[in-house]
From TrEMBL:
<feature type="domain" description="L,D-TPase catalytic">
    <location>
        <begin position="324"/>
        <end position="505"/>
    </location>
</feature>
<dbReference type="Pfam" id="PF03734">
    <property type="entry name" value="YkuD"/>
</dbReference>
<dbReference type="InterPro" id="IPR002477">
    <property type="entry name" value="Peptidoglycan-bd-like"/>
</dbReference>
<dbReference type="InterPro" id="IPR005490">
    <property type="entry name" value="LD_TPept_cat_dom"/>
</dbReference>
<feature type="active site" description="Nucleophile">
    <location>
        <position position="478"/>
    </location>
</feature>
<dbReference type="InterPro" id="IPR038063">
    <property type="entry name" value="Transpep_catalytic_dom"/>
</dbReference>
<feature type="active site" description="Proton donor/acceptor">
    <location>
        <position position="459"/>
    </location>
</feature>
<dbReference type="Pfam" id="PF01471">
    <property type="entry name" value="PG_binding_1"/>
</dbReference>
<feature type="region of interest" description="Disordered">
    <location>
        <begin position="31"/>
        <end position="57"/>
    </location>
</feature>
<dbReference type="InterPro" id="IPR036365">
    <property type="entry name" value="PGBD-like_sf"/>
</dbReference>
<keyword id="KW-0808">Transferase</keyword>
<dbReference type="InterPro" id="IPR052905">
    <property type="entry name" value="LD-transpeptidase_YkuD-like"/>
</dbReference>
<dbReference type="InterPro" id="IPR036366">
    <property type="entry name" value="PGBDSf"/>
</dbReference>
<feature type="compositionally biased region" description="Basic and acidic residues">
    <location>
        <begin position="34"/>
        <end position="57"/>
    </location>
</feature>
<comment type="pathway">
    <text>Cell wall biogenesis; peptidoglycan biosynthesis.</text>
</comment>
<dbReference type="GO" id="GO:0009252">
    <property type="term" value="P:peptidoglycan biosynthetic process"/>
</dbReference>
<dbReference type="Pfam" id="PF20142">
    <property type="entry name" value="Scaffold"/>
</dbReference>
Amino acid sequence: MSIKNLLQSMLLCWSLYSFSVILMLTPQSSSADHPFKGIDSIDERERERERERERERERALLSQLPEQIKLYSLSTLSELYEKNAREPLWQDPLAIQDFEQQLLEVALLKINPQFSTWLEYLSDPNITGIARDIILSDAMLGYLYFISSLTSEEKVWLYRPPLNSDRQGYQIMRAPENKITSWQEAIHKNETYHYVNSLAPQHPQYRKMQTELLKLLSDNSPWPKLTERVYLREGYSSKDISNVKKILYRLGIGNMSLTDVDSQVYSHDLVMAIKQFQKNRGLPADGIIGIRTRNWLNVSPKILARLLALNMQRLRFTPADIQTGILVNIPDYSLNYYEEGKIRLFSKVIVGRPDRKTPVMQSAINQIVINPDWNVPHSLAREDILPQVIKNIDYLQEHNYRILSSWSQNAEVIDPESIDWENISIENFPYYLRQTLGPNNPLGHYKFNMPNRYSIFLHDTPNKAMFQRYRRAGSSGCVRVQKASELARLLLKKTGLTDADILNFLKENKSTYRNTRKRIPVWLYYLTAWVSEDGATQFRTDIYHYDQSVL
């Protein structure tokens, strides 16, 4: 090959190489080499058009409202009214009336100011027609979330003391889709009233409490106050007596007459009315106006209404129409045992101290123990018993305690003398304590077992004196039953035992376990306000400070 031909070949190769490099560096066609990029652009344009349609729906909805109205759920509402051809969603006056009443009951809790804002809008006579309809729907979405949050958040603020985070307010979120769908279905079936009614607590107490709530709210006058801090007995005189009469008159207690309102003598008739008032507040009905009676007399109808409203929501988790079962109202210190829908047994109870609360819970008795041993919970062993043992090792024998390697039936019994008590760690105590049956056993003659994660049960007690107190929050969480023997007899007879059988078991120096044929439902609930069978509104001291979350 000649030099000329060689140079031509080299030049051709270099040209081809340069061209390929240029091709690699040149931007490529998006449609040819990136087939999805065009689709992405189309999708983005469609999303933008949808956002514009949504903004248009929202503008159309807002145009039907006064300028000062701010909707909480604008996006959801615009979609709902678009689907309904922008026609009203509220056609039934009874449904509207019922819903506004339920909204009022929630607004009284003051968990979020938005509920009160909705009520203010709805009470404005200048807001009518479709504008009022939209506000009702906005409030309904907030109310639907409120109801769903009570269950999904485990009744978080109904049964707990207030937390610092509560100061930020109860946050209203979007209602669950299934709740919104159910509401819309009711509208299309013309069943709005029945649907709204179903949102209220389904409990016989609800309507009774609602009636009393409206009575309290109708009393808007300034509330008289008792200012003297003296104990008043029959025949005593005080400048507070005039206000006592006014308070009882306005509460409808006793046959109070204001004809002698200026008298300062604590008369017999007034004493009888105070006794009724004390009974309705769970106080000793002694007729003496002391500190606690005075404090309750000073509580205004406005506060009483809020207490009723809170407990009306608690009815959602309070059993109704019981056929067979045991109900324990914790702040009332009371137990009712039902058979065939009727109260078969009433008993006073002792519940947990404020620092060892009896939990709000549901379970069922599946076993009754006669002459029970007591397996001491680790927390109680650490806090109450072991400090006594370290001071005096004879404390174990004096109170019939045994130290075990475990809770099992064949657990090894540990000799207390083999333990180095001077160097033992109470916090990490490796053994278990059991108190055997005997006069000092805190479980008494009967224990009613019911499975639950709190290790809570009902039981007898040898210390009957505490049942004479009106404040009976004194246990470590379990429920002590004054009439445990009567309750045990009723339940044990259903297992086939006779009174003679039960007596023989009690005489034996051992524990007897008897399973129930059917589980007996048990509800431990917390109501500080309700309406009694005689129509009197009852209020109780909030022993665990759960009411403070809304007051």
